[in-house]
């Protein structure tokens, strides 16, 4: 099934469970980026759970090869997960739009809702471009601090997956299990 369906039927995940899933997601996306592939449509509906509840990333229909120094310009993906630069029609390198989407996914796993939503596309666009989202009272400070590395309006200031993989929240309970690209 999809992570989306899981969230609909079970509600938000406890941070420990979200961390286990999110570590797999980040590792898999990092692997893609190392192979110069940007997904561009990361969302809960494209994260599948296998029989052992391991994450599988699906739907590479919008994925593309990226080369450092060569910009992409196609608006791809699902608007609630789309980076602000996509709404602005700006050219982008690639990985940074996946990083933004991963931030939206983390928020969704931990809260059971989207950080940016609207009655229509115009309202959603305005909220994404403002970059303001509500931190639920139950979210840990470490999780909030990690989110702030993803959901940064300026793409050049956004965290890299290498930095994010070393983040404190990502590694709670996994101190002896360094996060590496999923192969």
TrEMBL record:
<keyword id="KW-0808">Transferase</keyword>
<comment type="similarity">
    <text>Belongs to the protein kinase superfamily. CAMK Ser/Thr protein kinase family. Smok subfamily.</text>
</comment>
<protein>
    <recommendedName>
        <fullName>non-specific serine/threonine protein kinase</fullName>
        <ecNumber>2.7.11.1</ecNumber>
    </recommendedName>
</protein>
<dbReference type="InterPro" id="IPR000719">
    <property type="entry name" value="Prot_kinase_dom"/>
</dbReference>
<dbReference type="GO" id="GO:0035556">
    <property type="term" value="P:intracellular signal transduction"/>
</dbReference>
<keyword id="KW-0547">Nucleotide-binding</keyword>
<dbReference type="InterPro" id="IPR011009">
    <property type="entry name" value="Kinase-like_dom_sf"/>
</dbReference>
<feature type="domain" description="Protein kinase">
    <location>
        <begin position="1"/>
        <end position="170"/>
    </location>
</feature>
<keyword id="KW-0418">Kinase</keyword>
<dbReference type="GO" id="GO:0000226">
    <property type="term" value="P:microtubule cytoskeleton organization"/>
</dbReference>
<dbReference type="Pfam" id="PF00069">
    <property type="entry name" value="Pkinase"/>
</dbReference>
<dbReference type="GO" id="GO:0005524">
    <property type="term" value="F:ATP binding"/>
</dbReference>
<dbReference type="GO" id="GO:0050321">
    <property type="term" value="F:tau-protein kinase activity"/>
</dbReference>
<keyword id="KW-0067">ATP-binding</keyword>
<dbReference type="InterPro" id="IPR008271">
    <property type="entry name" value="Ser/Thr_kinase_AS"/>
</dbReference>
<keyword id="KW-0723">Serine/threonine-protein kinase</keyword>
<dbReference type="GO" id="GO:0005737">
    <property type="term" value="C:cytoplasm"/>
</dbReference>
